[in-house]
Design brief:
The protein has 21 helices and eight strands. The protein is mainly alpha-helical. Strand 4 and strand 5 form a beta hairpin.
Length: 591
């Protein structure tokens, strides 16, 4: 028996060594599997990063190419402007000096001949050249040359020529002659397609350049034009829409960092951000137009100084033939300013498109003088009058503006949770859950917690070791070993074989079950942290929603002050307003 015991002990020791080696190999294999999964996750992350970097590189390449093309195009356009219209610059510079010399009476016959010889030959189609010849000839008392030059200038551009002479004669104190030229100018106008220089008329009236008679004549024409165009419902609605676009452009962007939890969990966040942006736009509108209406323009020293400014603007404007190139140049320069971003450049140039339009209808001129006076060259003094004249468009646009953002205030703000979470080599996907903040917060916390527990418990349980098939397989292997061992070594051999095989199976099962328990514990900890984070987001979003509601109420309360400001606008208090004060509705004029 002692020999048999010694043999059994040696075999058991050998089996234990084999079991230890198998357990070590199992641990190493598990580590290698985890490493493979980690490498796969790292590879996916690197591929996503590479994709993002490639997209950023492609976008940067497009921007760089657009920037280079714009820089090249700017040079080409400038060369073309210099080649085709360079002499126009000379005429415009000469016009400024000529007006000064004409005012002092220092124009000689030699100057008249120089102007006629140079400007007429260099600019055969430009209206300003013969107009300057006419002024020079008049100063030099050359009636024949003056008459021919007037006829030629009037043939080339009757409206601008009439305006120039009206302003010059007004400056010389020839009021009756100035009014006649003003009448010529007005008769030459189409209220649906006014020339760009019409803004100078508005500026002239605002400065009182034509006196009471000229102002009455102009207001009569404007009233007539406003009646013609105001009967067009589409034209009225177009101006209301322009004012609506102005109000929307003043809305500030709501930074998501101000309400981080609400942005992260609420599917209604885009609506909430848009509504708050619109409400905060009320204060921006109030600030801008209060400043405009309260602005006191600097008084001019003499009326002639104001006329000089108007004349300078008239003679320094681009000719219609230059406008397409100037428009293209403005766009290319905007592309350069925005570092190749063609979309932003197009938006900027379209916003100032009226700066390069050959013609505008009277209603658009009136709105443009109020919204973007720099686009048509009017002053802040004229802008104040234009804003008052556009009061009804402003009013209807403001009503629609407030109505639009209030109409999309979410009635039911909800929180949504549902995402995939990496858990070791596995991924747990939380089914979507939504809760309404109309419910009490404790109830939402309870429902979300139960949702997490309901779906995480089966997932964690699925990571446990499956004992039933393993035990069944071990029993089967032991029976096979018992049969084989009994056939070769008798009962003692069979028992020994069963003990050896059973011990190995037990150790393997125990090792695998331990790994599964550790995986379960790790998964439980990861998912518990994710659950706590989700509950924190739920509570934080509720606090953000409360803060949003207070911010919205405060911003929306400014609407009444803006309405009061619009109602206070009155062209009747502005005796020199060049604009019509007719009342309009979105459907047309109201008598």
């Amino acid at each position: 028996m002692s020999a048999l015991d010694a043999a059994l002990s040696a075999q058991v020791a050998s089996v234990n060594r084999l079991v230890g080696q198998v357990a070590g190999q199992v641990d190493r294999l598990s580590g290698q599997v985890a490493s493979v999964h980690a490498n796969q996750h790292q590879t996916r992350t690197e591929l996503q990063q590479l994709r993002d970097e490639f997209r950023a590189f492609a976008m940067q390449a497009r921007l760089a190419a657009a920037l280079q093309r714009a820089e090249t195009r700017v040079g080409v356009i400038q060369d073309r402007l210099d080649h085709e219209f360079g002499h126009h610059k000379v005429v415009r510079r000469t016009a400024v000096g000529m007006l000064q010399a004409f005012d002092t009476g220092l124009v000689s016959e030699e100057a008249v001949r120089a102007v006629g010889d140079q400007l007429m030959l260099q600019t055969p189609r430009y209206w300003l050249a013969p107009a300057l010849v006419a002024l020079a000839a008049w100063s030099a008392d050359d009636q024949a040359l003056c008459a021919r030059a007037v006829q030629e200038a009037f043939r080339r551009a009757p409206d601008r020529t009439s305006l120039l002479f009206a302003l010059v004669l007004r400056r010389q104190g020839r009021h009756a002659e100035s009014a006649r030229w003003l009448r010529h100018y007005l008769l030459a106008q189409d209220p649906a397609a006014l020339g760009r220089e019409f803004a100078v008329i508005l500026e002239s009236v605002a400065q009182g350049a034509f006196g009471a008679a000229g102002r009455a004549m102009l207001r009569e024409a404007l009233e007539r034009w406003h009646g013609l165009l105001g009967a067009d419902t589409g034209a009225q609605n177009t101006q209301i829409e322009r004012w609506g676009a102005e109000l929307r452009s003043l809305c500030p962007v709501v930074d998501g960092a101000e309400f981080p939890y609400l942005r992260a969990v609420s599917p209604q966040w885009p609506q909430l951000a848009g509504v708050l942006s619109g409400a905060r736009g009320q204060q921006a509108v109030l600030d801008k137009y209060t400043a405009i209406t309260n602005l006191e323009p600097a008084p001019t020293q003499r009326l002639e100084d104001a006329v000089d400014d108007i004349l300078d603007r008239l003679v320094s404007e681009y000719d219609d033939e230059e406008l397409p190139l100037r428009r293209d140049l403005a766009y290319q320069e905007a592309v350069i300013t925005h570092d190749g971003d063609t979309a932003r450049a197009r938006t900027d140039t379209e916003a100032d498109a009226s700066s390069y339009d050959e013609s505008l209808d009277y209603l658009t001129v009136q709105s443009t003088a109020a919204l973007n006076p720099a686009a048509i060259g009017t002053s802040e003094a004229t802008r104040r009058l234009a804003v008052a004249a556009c009061r009804d468009w402003f009013h209807h646009a403001h009503q629609g503006f407030g109505r639009d953002y209030r109409a999309v205030v979410p009635q039911d703000v909800r929180a949504r949770f549902g995402a995939a979470y990496p858990v070791g080599a596995q991924r747990f996907t939380l089914p979507a859950w939504e809760g309404s903040y109309q419910k009490p917060l404790p109830e939402l916390e309870r429902e979300l917690g139960e949702h997490w527990d309901r779906h995480t418990a089966p997932f964690v349980a699925s990571l446990g070791y499956k004992y039933t098939p393993a035990v069944a397989l071990a029993v089967l292997v032991c029976l096979v070993a018992l049969f084989l061992g009994g056939g070769g070594g008798g009962p003692a051999g069979a028992v020994m074989a069963v003990l050896i095989v059973g011990g190995i199976a037990w150790l393997i099962i125990r090792g695998l079950a331990g790994q599964c328990r550790r995986a379960q514990d790790s998964a439980r900890q990861i998912l518990d942290r994710a659950k706590r984070a989700a509950l924190e987001q739920l509570v934080g979003a509720r606090a953000d929603l409360t803060a949003w509601q207070h911010a919205y109420e405060d911003a929306d309360a400014v609407e009444a002050r803006v309405a009061d400001l619009i109602a206070s606008l009155d062209t009747g208090t502005e005796g020199n307003s060049p604009f019509s004060g007719r009342t309009v509705t979105p459907e047309g004029p109201r008598t």
